[in-house]
Amino acid sequence: MRTIMRNRQLSVAAGLVAVLGLGVTACGSDAADGGGAKAPAAASASGSQQAVPANSPAAGQGSATASGRATTTPRGRTCTAADLKAALAGGTGAQSPDAPGAEEIELTNRSGAVCTMKGYPGVDLVGDKGTWNLPRFQGAQAEQVTLQPGGKAYVVIDYLPFAGGGAVEFKVQKIVLTPPDDTSQLTVQWSGASPQDQSGATHPGTYVRPVSAKR
After folding, report:
1. Where does the pLDDT of residue 93 fall: very low under 50, low under 70, confident under 90, or very high at 90 and above?
2. What is the DSSP-derived secondary structure letter of residue 44?
């Protein structure tokens, strides 16, 4: 009787071990074959889930550096006579000796770099009586003018035309202009009526205005 009971207990224990073994095998099969565990690995292999570095070309920053484009605006230097082309602006000069005249000089930046000017240019009228260094018109406010390549600035010479009546004529042959803060010179031809010679006057009616960005 005891032998029979012992054999039954052993059979039951063997059955339990077999059932537990099947359960462990089934769990291991699910872990190895389940589709949910493969998705992260596939995404990692394709690179779709990888973070893009902030300084990489894919982030839109490296390409600008590679192309060599400037990231800041270049700072302008002082315009010199070598940077500028001088010519009379259209429509200047006195139309008759009875009205005040103005010669307007157009300065064009012919260099390939940005340059700046501020203040009064030196202006000499060269004529039959020598050289007349014009005074400055103190009623104007000087402004800084920034010239991009091809940009233009203007200098106005106000003058009192010669109208006879005992006054002396100054026959201008050319204008010699020295840009502000420079020592080199530019030459422009005079086109208006002759001014009255007031080269020795304290407050002459002929003078130069500061460089301006507008006409």
Report:
1. low
2. H
DSSP type of residue 203: S
Please choose, from the candidates 51, 199, 25, the residue with its C-alpha nearest in 3D space to the C-alpha of residue 127: 199
Decide if pLDDT at 9 tops 90: no
Q: Which residues of 200-211 are buried (b: 16+ CB within 10 A; e: fewer)?
A: eeeebebbbbbb
Q: How far apart (Å, rounded) are the C-alpha atoms in residues 159 and 117?
A: 23
3-state secondary structure of 8: helix
Tokens of 211: 């460089």
What is the average pLDDT value for the chain, to the nearest integer? 74
Given a contact cutoff of 8 angstroms between Cβ atoms, the answer to whether 179 and 186 are in contact is yes
Q: Are 194 and 165 in contact (CB under 8 A)?
A: no
Closest CA to 207 of 126, 129, 121, 149: 121
User: If DSSP codes are grouped into helix, strand and coil, which group holds residue 134?
Assistant: coil
Q: Answer yes or no: are the C-beta atoms of 142 and 119 closer than 8 Å.
A: yes
DSSP state of 128: T
Neighbouring-strand partners of residue 172 = 127
